[in-house]
């Protein structure tokens, strides 16, 4: 029997993304976001959700762009720091020892040290309760060659992305692969 937990955000897991933007003065900033995901394949788009009180909120609206920076597990401390400090008061890139790289495609910085970066142009926003959902069209994905598989695509076993459990506020790494998507279920179609 299942026990009702009531209303809550007990989704498992959520991504750990550091969202890059430039503030009004042009200073690069990062915000750690766990409320995010793919929202369209054509056009390729992702979504992130922020509260209006966050320093990155106005920056993304004014610049019309953001980057999604996917940290590997070795950057867990920097990722957590970027989510609890405010870019209004601190230079998160400098404090975390990260390098702000200027995108040639969108008006937002990305983290040079992170293995996977998604550059986005803001398509639209949707007000949802205390959050605003920012929908970004993917204009490019950049990956370190060291995290690519034989087909030239990002390999999660090499990226080693962080994941987050909102229920207990703990970061985790990925587990072992369990099967190939759009393939292992075919045995049930026989």
From TrEMBL:
<protein>
    <submittedName>
        <fullName>Flavin reductase family protein</fullName>
    </submittedName>
</protein>
<comment type="similarity">
    <text>Belongs to the flavoredoxin family.</text>
</comment>
<dbReference type="InterPro" id="IPR012349">
    <property type="entry name" value="Split_barrel_FMN-bd"/>
</dbReference>
<feature type="domain" description="Flavin reductase like">
    <location>
        <begin position="12"/>
        <end position="157"/>
    </location>
</feature>
<dbReference type="InterPro" id="IPR052174">
    <property type="entry name" value="Flavoredoxin"/>
</dbReference>
<dbReference type="InterPro" id="IPR002563">
    <property type="entry name" value="Flavin_Rdtase-like_dom"/>
</dbReference>
<keyword id="KW-0285">Flavoprotein</keyword>
<dbReference type="Pfam" id="PF01613">
    <property type="entry name" value="Flavin_Reduct"/>
</dbReference>
């Amino acid at each position: 029997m299942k026990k009702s937990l009531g209303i809550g955000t007990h989704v498992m897991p959520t991504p750990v993304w550091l969202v890059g933007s430039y503030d009004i003065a042009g200073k690069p900033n990062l915000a750690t976001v766990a409320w995010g995901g793919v929202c369209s394949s054509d056009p390729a788009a992702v979504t992130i959700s922020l509260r209006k009180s966050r320093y990155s909120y106005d920056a993304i609206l004014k610049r019309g762009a953001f980057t999604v920076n996917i940290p590997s597990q070795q950057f867990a401390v920097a990722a957590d720091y970027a989510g609890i400090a405010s870019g209004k008061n601190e230079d998160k890139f400098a404090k975390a020892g990260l390098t702000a790289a200027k995108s040639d495609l969108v008006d937002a910085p990305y983290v040079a040290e992170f293995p996977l970066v998604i550059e986005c142009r803001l398509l639209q926003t949707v007000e949802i309760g205390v959050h605003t959902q920012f929908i970004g069209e993917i204009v490019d994905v950049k990956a370190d060659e060291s995290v690519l598989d034989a087909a030239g695509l990002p390999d999660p076993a090499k990226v080693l992305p962080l994941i987050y459990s909102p229920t207990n506020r703990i970061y985790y790494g990925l587990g072992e692969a369990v099967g190939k998507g759009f393939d292992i279920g075919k045995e049930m179609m026989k």
